[in-house]
Amino acid sequence: MDRRRFLQGATIASGVALAAKGIAKAAPATTAAGMVPRVCSTWDFGVAANQAAWKVLAAGGRALDAVEQGARVPEADLRNHSVGRAGYPDRDGKVTLDASIMDENGNCGAVAAIEHIAHPISVARRVMERTPHVLLVGDGALQFAIEQGFPREELLTPESEKAWHEWLKTAKYKPVANSEVRSYNAGPGGTPGDASNHDTIGMLAIDAKGNLSGACTTSGMAWKLHGRVGDSPIIGAGLYVDNDVGGATSTGVGEEVIRNVGSFLVVELMRQGRSPEDACREAVERILRKKPNAKDLQVGFLAMDKKGNVGAWAIQKGFSYAVCDAAKQDALIPGKSSY
Ligand code: SD4
C-alpha cells in the first residue's frame, strides 16, 4: 500500500508542479474553510525556499509536497554551507547530512549522518512512505537512498574543502551564533573562515485544506565529530507537527534542542493555548533555565498554529525567518530573542 500511496503522491506532485507554472499568484488568500495557505522557514535563505514551496501551495497542492520542494532549494544552493550539497564537513572532512519530514497524519521519516546524497529531505520522505521505519542512519540510509534511485555524489565542494583546511589549522570546535547568515550574504567566494558552523532550514506549511506539514534539513554543526547527529532528524526535537494544533521546528545548537525535546515542547505549549511566538519563547527560556550558559549559544524556534499564525523566538539576536502567503511572497522577519 505504501508504494501505491507513494505513486499517487508522485502523480499529484507532478500535476501540482505543472499547474504551479501558470497560476502561482492565483492562490486563495483564504479558503472556504477560512484557512490561509502559508509557508514559513528559518533564516534568510528561507525566502527562496518559501517561494518554491509557495508554487505548490498556490496551485492547491499539499503542504507535504510544498515543504519537500521548499527544502530542496537550500539543499541545492552552493552558497549555503549549512544545508545539503556544499555543506561544511565534519572534522574528518566528510559531509554528513540530517533531515526529517512530517505530514498531517502524523507520518514521519528521517535520515541522519547520510553521506553522498544531495537531497536528504527526499530520502526522508521515502523512509516515511516506503518503509515501516522512521529513521535510517549512516551507511544504511545511503544504501536505501541508492536503492531508491538517488544518485551517489561528492558533496564536498572545493570551497567547503578550503574552509575545512582553514579550520584544521586550529581545529577548535566552538559553535558560532548565526554564522550562516554572514556566510550566505558573502555569496560565492565569500570568506569561508567567517562561516564556521551551522544553520538549518526548518520549514512549516499549511495548505488550502488546512493541513500542516514540516521539513527540516541540515549539514549540522560544521567540524562536528564524525557520526554526530543533531536535532534536525530527531522527530520531536528539530521538527514536530500535530495537525490538530500546529507545527514547530528549530535551528541552532541541536544538543540543547534534543535535551529539551524542543519542537514537541513548542507544539504542546500551543496545545495549552499559547500563541506560536509565546510557545517558542517559553521553549527557549526553558533551555536557558536548565542551562544558563546556553545564553552564549544560539537556538531558535519557529512555529505555525492550526490557523496559519506564525511566531518565533531565539536565544540571541540575529535569527531571522521568512513567511510567504498570497499577500506577500518574500517577507523576511527578524526573530525576537531573549538576549
Ligand atoms: C544541528 N540544529 O545539527 C542543527 C544545526 C543548526 O543553526 O540548525 N544550526 O544541531
Tell me what you see in this structure.
The protein is an alpha+beta fold and 339 residues long. It has two domains: 1-30, no CATH class; 32-334, 4-Layer Sandwich (Glutamine Phosphoribosylpyrophosphate, subunit 1, domain 1). It has helices at 2-23, 46-58, 63-76, 120-130, 138-147, 158-168, 179-186, 254-259, 262-271, 276-290, and strands spanning 38-42, 97-102, 108-114, 135-137, 201-206, 212-218, 239-242, 246-252, 299-305, 310-314, 320-325, 331-334. The protein has an eight-stranded mixed β-sheet with strand order 4-3-2-6-5-1-11-12. Strands 7-8-9-10 form a four-stranded antiparallel β-sheet. N-hydroxy-L-asparagine binds next to strand 8.
Tell me the radius of gyration: 18 Å
Which sequence of strands runs across the widest sheet? Answer: 4-3-2-6-5-1-11-12
Please identify the top-level CATH class of the largest domain: Alpha Beta
Structural class determined from secondary elements: alpha+beta
Largest beta-sheet details: 8 strands, mixed
Distinct small molecules: N-hydroxy-L-asparagine
CATH architecture of the largest domain: 4-Layer Sandwich
Separation of the first and last Cα atoms: 50 Å
CATH topology value of the largest domain: Glutamine Phosphoribosylpyrophosphate, subunit 1, domain 1
**Count of strand segments:** 12
Overall pLDDT confidence: 86
Strand content: 15-25%
- What is the name of the CATH superfamily of the largest domain? (Glycosyl)asparaginase
Number of helices: 10
pLDDT below 50 for ≥5 consecutive residues: which ranges?
1-26, 180-197
So what's the overall shape? globular
Helicity level, as a percent range? 25-40%
The helix/strand series, from N terminus to C terminus, equals: HEHHEEHEHHHEEEEHHHEEEE
How many domains make up the 3D coordinates?
2
